[in-house]
Specification:
about 270 residues; alpha/beta; Ubiquitin-like (UB roll); Rossmann fold; 2 domains; 7-stranded mixed sheet; about 30% helix; elongated
Length: about 270
Amino acid sequence: MKIYLNEVEMTVKEGTTSFNLRDLIKKEAQVVVLNGFIIREDVPLKEDDRIVFITKGEIPDREELESLLVSRHTPRVHQKVKKAFVGIAGLGGLGSNVAVALARMGIGKLVLVDYDIVEPSNLNRQHYFLKHIGMKKTEALKEIISEITPFVEIETKDIYLDENNIKESFKDVDIVVEAFDKPTCKAELVNTVLSKLPSKYIVAASGMAGYFSNNTIRTKRIRDRFYLVGDEVSEAKPGCGLMAPRVSIAASHQANTVLRIILEEYEI
């Protein structure tokens, strides 16, 4: 019977159970993950099951690390995710959080684009730390992702995106994430991707300011290759700032939309 141990195919006898195999392979493991779920009672293994054994506190070698990082994924998702290439335009509250979410799910490659540096007011909602103040956002985020997983390939571009360089910056990606603050920049990116990069999907955002209801942030499919996240109303302006909770909710909507596109789940 064929199963996958740490994402590697192997053959076991019919009737082999999860704990039988653990005792043979890694008896000291306290965590047994079967098809993305931690089990606490022994169960028989079935054809094509995926199983991972984890010893708490043990730092795995590089060969084993990737399979452990994705052990809680839904089965057969990682094979598609690790082949995907995503571009992120803007590395602020949306972009930095989207990048980290995609890295945690094992995305194959990211291109991170921003011209700015980290400053103190960014820390209320952006995925940076005190030590990053004064660093380029591209380099700071690349460092953060490397500390989560070494398997994501990172390309950085320290540029201000405009109609003259958008096409070149994202010509090789599968999906573009729009994560700008300025409405004019958002519109320029969306229009350029849709008109000049006809095979690319774009996931944009509009409206996540303040501390309004969580449930007003939604994902909409505007057209075949264009998705929009937000409430489309709550603009950041004097008296209505940007704060971590709603920005993070919108960023998670964007990251999950990217995942659904990768898995060819195009409807909302």
